[in-house]
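Students often ask why inverse folding is considered easier than folding. One informal answer: many sequences map to the same fold, so there is more than one right answer. In these notes we will look at a single instance of the problem. The structure comes first.
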């Protein structure tokens, strides 16, 4: 299973997508977290993160918004 995190601010990418290392999971439910530090150079406002999970054949994405 591969996992990619893309952060956006004002609909523009913030940095490069974060690709987590390949993980091997048994079939079934899947959950993931990613901790990151918000530094002073992050402007205040609304951000969006899109997380894509792929097994190489199919992929699923989910997005969430957060504010700073």
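Output (designed amino acids):
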């Amino acid at each position: 299973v591969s996992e990619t995190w893309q952060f956006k601010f004002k609909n523009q990418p913030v940095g490069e997508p974060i690709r987590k290392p390949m993980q091997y999971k048994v079939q079934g439910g899947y959950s993931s977290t990613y901790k990151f530090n918000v530094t002073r150079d992050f402007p205040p406002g609304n951000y969006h993160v899109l997380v894509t999970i792929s097994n190489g054949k199919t992929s699923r994405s989910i997005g969430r918004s957060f504010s700073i």
